[in-house]
Amino acid sequence: MSDIDTQRRQFLKTSAGAAAIAIAPGMMLYQTVRADTAAASSKVRWGMLIDTAQCKEGCNDCVTACNKENGLSGKTGATDSQWIRKIEIKDISNGHTVSLPMMCQHCEHPPCVDVCPTQASFKRADGIVLVDRHLCIGCRYCMMACPYKARSFVHETLTDQNPDVPRGKGTVESCSLCVHRIDKGQIPACAEACQNKAILFGDLNDANSEIYKKVRSAATVQIRADLQLNPGVRYQGL
Amino acid sequence: MVDLSKLYSMNRLYYVLLAIGGLAVLGGAYAVLMMEHHGHIISGMNNQIVWGMPHVFAIFLIVAASGVLNVASIGSVFGKAVYKARAPLASLLSIAMLAGGLAVLMLDLGRPDRIIVAATNYNLTSVFAWNVVLYSGMFSLVVVYLWTMMERRMNPFNKAAGLAVFIWRFVLTTGTGLIFAFLTARQAYGSALLPPMFIVLSFAWGLAVFHVVQKVIYAWNEKALDPAILQRTKNLLGVFIVGSLYMVATYHFTNMYFAQQKGFELFILRDGGIYPNLFWWGYVVFGNVLPLLLIYFPGLGKTKCVMIASMLVVLGAFALLYVFIIGGQAYPLNIFPGYEVSSTFADGQIASYTPSIYEFLLGFGGLAIAFLITTVSVRVLNFMPQDKPYISD
């Protein structure tokens, strides 16, 4: 082997070593960050069952908890974000009134995902419908398409954001089913906050879960079931 | 000695027009900057009326941009000489209005800085994403079409390019109509009638814009348009107006027939305050009935009448789009059929909307872009219709 060859090999070895040393910390960091984000499983379908008989008119605990968890201002002006809201409904034919929380229904066939031009609106494998704030261009087409008016547009500069729930001016947002809590094994803030246990959260696909059994034993409805979107949020007592 | 004072004053007028257009574009840029900085809070739009005045301007410009090509198609595809002579001007107007409309649409986005995302992250089920292709495709096709008309060596390809543009603009306006037709839950939209309705509306709006611009260009060149030619295009405008009235009427009639849609129809046509007023007075009376009278009433139908009729059609277009886009969102979404509803998020309530000055600045900025492109192009290239001495068809 000639002297030049040896030198070249040595040079290549040194370069490769230097490159490895340069990249390694980044890779390790990347691995660490990714470590606790196991991919969402399509075997799971997260959902909620809301028992309107237990939901009290005038009680706003779920809304307050949501605002606190997600760093929303809690204001209810025309341009303020509301991820969950209480709706009072009155049957026109018999005057019967019901109070219930309304939020993103996490549809199996979400119109917001269909219409989104940039794939910013997407459905996770476990059925949670989310907005990728890095892809959202703020066209608001999803807000036009949502049959539940579940989405809000961020109209002004935000301050005091919750680090777990990044938001952004000029993008659309909605209930994330507290995905950051679910990924830590917790339940959504609204379900936890409801003193009357009106919100039951769980895996609609898990035969051992309470929600699975309840949905099969009690009469539940999907809102605007005629649209056949198969929402993950079901209601009881409507 | 030749008197050049006339030429100088025309020259001055040209720069004055450019300055006015430029100022309006600057006003639009200012609005964009303000909305970018403060957010949409300074617009009149909110979480109930998510699309506002900018969309009225943008959709008018885009729909008219497609419709104005009708003039070109009748020339290139159906071989009518009168229209063929006007195809270059029609194509120019199409490009200009498309540019203006798209600028408004893009600059109203919450994150206009991410426009590249719209081009790189593509959702195949989104009609908005299809429209990105349709609009840019139309732009390039019309440029090629213009090339085949204005470059003698390209003339042999003119017929093919004309046919391609003809097909493309049908698809494009269908795409614009589908934006609304695909909204399953909203009472005002979600109808298969909307794409054909937009196509017929585009014919009338495009031809109306064409009439006005053509008149100005003839005046600028100190020429008079042959009344026989105006007679033909004015009759065509009349037919288009009747056609669009028919489509709008059919849309409302079918809605009226469905019990579930009755509340919405009564809102738009009778009880909704500004919306029925704009619909009946703005669109029906001033945008259709009056123009039809001006065109067809015995003794009328002269150049001036046709110009006024055309301008009224454009005004009516804005009235209709305001009612359609904003009225359609103002009527509450029916989440719980058969129930009375109330909430902190305006459920069950008529949403209120007052457009802000920034929205108008942005909208007029879009119009100004179209105006500037047209004015400069007409000045530097020859877009003046060249009619043959004898019209064979």
Short description:
The complex is a heterodimer of chains A (238) and B (393). By secondary structure, chain A is an alpha+beta fold. Chain A is built from seven helices and ten strands.
Summary keywords:
heterodimer; A: about 240 residues; alpha+beta; Alpha-Beta Plaits; four-stranded mixed β-sheet; about 20% strand; B: about 400 residues; mainly alpha; about 70% helix
Describe the structure.
The complex is a heterodimer of chains A (about 240) and B (about 400). Chain A is built from seven helices and ten strands. Chain A has about 240 residues and is of the alpha+beta class. Chain A has two domains: about 35 residues; about 190 residues, Alpha-Beta Plaits, CATH 3.30.70.20. In chain A, the strands form four sheets. A four-stranded mixed β-sheet of chain A has the order 8-1-10-9. Chain A has a two-stranded antiparallel ribbon with strand order 2-3. In chain A, strand 2 and strand 3 form a beta hairpin. Chain A starts with a helix and ends with a strand. Chain B is mainly α and about 400 residues long. Chain B has a domain of about 150 residues. Classes of the chains: A alpha+beta (about 240), B mainly alpha (about 400). Chains A and B meet through strand 2, helix 3, helix 4 and strand 6 of A and helix 6, helix 7 and strand 1 of B.
Name the helicity range of chain A: 25-40%
Given helix and strand content, the structural type of chain B is: mainly alpha
Q: Major beta sheet of chain A, specifics?
A: 4 strands, mixed
Chain pair with largest interface: A-B, 54 and 49 residues
What's the total number of strands of chain B? Answer: 1
> Order of strands across the widest beta sheet of chain A?
8-1-10-9
Structural class of chain A: alpha+beta
Head-to-tail CA distance between termini of chain B: 44 Å
Oligomer state equals heterodimer
Q: Average pLDDT of chain A, to the nearest integer?
A: 92
Q: Based on CA inertia axes, which overall geometry of chain A fits? A: elongated
Radius of gyration of chain A: 23 Å
How much of the sequence lies in strands of chain B comes to under 5%
What CATH first level of the largest domain in chain A would be assigned?
Alpha Beta
Following the backbone from N to C, one meets helices and strands of chain B in this order, namely: HHHHHHHHHHHHHEH
Mean pLDDT across every amino acid position of chain B? 95
